[in-house]
Amino acid sequence: MSGRDKRGRFVKGHRPWSAGKTKDIEPRLSGGRRPGIPNYSARLNIEPEEILKVLQRTRNYRKTAKHFGCSKPTVRNILRRNGITPPKFERPRSVWTEERIEELRRMYPTIPTREVAEYFKTTEMNIIKQAENFGIKKIRKQHPNRTSTHKYCSGCKQWKPHSEFWKNKYGNPASECKLCNNKRKMNYVRRNPDKELIWRKRYYQKHRDEIIKKVTDFYKKRPELRKLYNKRWMKRNPDKYKAVRARREKRKKDGNISSDDILRLLIMFKKYGCCPICDKVVDGKRRAWWLEHDIPLSRGGKHELSNVIYDCNICNMKKGTKTLKEFCGMTVDGILEKVQKEVKEKVA
C-alpha cells in the first residue's frame, strides 16, 4: 500500500492521510504545494533588480541573503523565476607579494598565529599553509631543561633526564618517571591485592621458563645471596620447611637401603679418594663426601642402592634437581664400575 503523508510527500507503504475521509483533496505538486498557491520565495515580494544590486556590492550570496532576511537558495530561486541566471563569483585570492612575504617572515616565527592572521585579514590555516610553502618555521619557547636528554614528568611535574624514566613499547621515555610510576603501582596493589595476585600467577605461568632461568643465573653469580635467601625463607616459613623435610624423610624411609649399605658405599668412595664427577681430592676440609641421588627425591627418585652414589659437596650443590646424565653425562653404573676398578687396583 502506498500514498501521501500529511505534507503531501509520496511514501511507499504509507497509509494515505486522507483515507477514510469524504473531503475531496486537490492533487499536490512537487514539494507538497497545491496549485495556485505561491511558495515562500514567491511571497517575499523582492525585486530581482534589488538582489542584483546587493550582489554586485557584496559579491557574496550569504551576505545578500542576510540583507533580505532569507536563505541563499531563496535568493537564487527568485532570480531564476524571473529568467535571470544567478551570477557566479570567484573568491578573492590574496596575492603574496615580496613585501607581504617579508612581513610574514618577520612575524610568523615569534608572534601567535591568530594575531598574524588578523594582521593579514585571513584565516590561521591559510597563514600556516603559506608559511610551509615559503619554508618559514615557528620558533617554540623552550624550557632550559627541555633538551633531547630531558623529559617532563606528568606525576611530580618536574624536568628529569631520560635515565630516570622507564621506556615504553616504542623505546621512548614514558610519561611518568620511575619513582612516580612505582608509587602509582604500589597504591594500586594496596587497593587491589586480589587482582595483583591473579595477575602475578598469570604472568608466572606465561613466562615460567624465563623467570626460572633469570633467577638461577642471578644466584649462580651470587652464591652467598642464595644462602642468605634460603636461611630467611626457613625462618619466615618454618611450617613449609618442616613439611619439605618430612616429605624427604618419608621418601627415604620408603626406600629399601639400610645404613650398613650406605656405610659400605662411603668406605669404598673414601678409598677412591676423589670426587667421581670433578676428579678433585676430597680432603674433608674444603670438600666433603655427600650422598647423591641420581634421580632426585623431589622428582620421584627412590632411596635405594641403584640410585645413590657419593660425590663432593660442591658438585652436589651444583647438580641441584638435575639427573647425573643431565649434569655430567654419567650414570650410576658407570661411576660405580670406575670407582670399583680403581679401588681394586690400589688394593692389589
Which tags fit this structure?
DNA Binding (I), subunit A; elongated; 16 helices; two-stranded antiparallel ribbon; 51% helix; 8 strands; 348 residues; mainly alpha; single chain
Structure description:
With 348 residues, the protein is mainly alpha-helical. Helix 2 crosses helix 3 (61-68), helix 6 (113-120) crosses helix 7 (124-133) and helix 13 crosses helix 16. Mean pLDDT is 82; it is low at 16-37. Among the domains are: 44-81; 98-133; 256-347, DNA Binding (I), subunit A (Orthogonal Bundle). The longest helix is centred in the C-terminal third of the chain and has 17 residues, at 238-254. The chain contains 16 helices and eight strands. The protein is elongated and about 135 Å long. It has helices spanning 40-43, 48-58, 61-68, 72-81, 98-107, 113-120, 124-133, 178-191, 193-206, 208-221, 223-236, 238-254, 259-272, 313-319, 324-328, 332-347; strands at residues 2-4, 10-12, 150-152, 159-161, 165-167, 173-177, 289-293, 308-312. The strands form four sheets. It has a two-stranded antiparallel sheet with strand order 1-2. It has a two-stranded antiparallel ribbon with strand order 3-4. It has a two-stranded antiparallel sheet with strand order 5-6.
